[in-house]
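PROTOCOL LOG
Step 1. Enter all chains and additional molecules of the complex.
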Amino acid sequence: MKNLLLHNLGLKLIALGLAIITWIYVNGELIK
Amino acid sequence: MTFFIWDYIKPTLEIIILWFVFYRILVFFEGTRAFQVLKGLTYLLIAFLLSQIFGFDTLNWLLTKFFAISIIALLIIFQQELRHGLARLGQRHLFSIGLEESEIIAIIEEITSAVYKLARLKVGCLIAIERETKLQPYIESGVLIDAHISSEVLQSIFVRESPLHDGGVITRGDRLIAASCLFPLSDNPNFSKIIGTRHRAALGITEQTDTVVVMVSEETTEISVAADGRFIPIVNRERLVNILKDLLVKETKKKKNEKPAPA
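Step 2. Run joint prediction.
Step 3. Record the structure below.
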């Protein structure tokens, strides 16, 4: 389980960052 | 109260789905030339978002125009990866030679035996095992043989005195279809500077098709297997057999399980 979480951690964090940025951006646009 | 909880769950769920999609895209492109481009695009996307937040109109205008034309640029830059990806989507079965498991294991034994004998003689070799994607263009670049796969035939093709020893051989099912075939060379920046032409050819064909390649380096007599644009290190004979079984036999089993039962 620990290995599954830590495997490709860098890519997982980049993907998480991109997901959060995209969500905030798109929601901001929708509210406008 | 239910609506209140849903307000929290919905964005979390959305972000998890987005994360999964982005992660799969990054994993798909990892280690390829396209990954560098993707990294560059990520920086541009961040710059674009920052310019929006801080209200930098000029930068915003430039980046908006850039993103509009970059769609065409992306199609050209990612051409190879898109082709590879789409070809994989269209593949229902990865190994479709219609052989029994015992027959595939016999072929694996013949190839393994040939590869180890050639390595002992310090002779290089390149054997491409066709799976779902047909290798017809590469077969046409070589000399047609159409022989039963055997360790002796493979050895006699690759010995230095043979007129067919340059290039690679292609196998389809239990037949050795052609020898002296030319394969596309990989231009993967992570490998191209440190590996020889035979290794680049092995990588090249596995990047563009679902072929499995077994090769022996003439310089180091090292044995390698290449699949999906990556090298799999081989430490001993048993490992080579197991890897080939994983790549060839398991896929055939999957295919058989997908077949509908006879009426």
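Step 4. Note key features.
The longest helix of chain B spans residues 2-29.
The longest strand of chain B covers residues 175-181.
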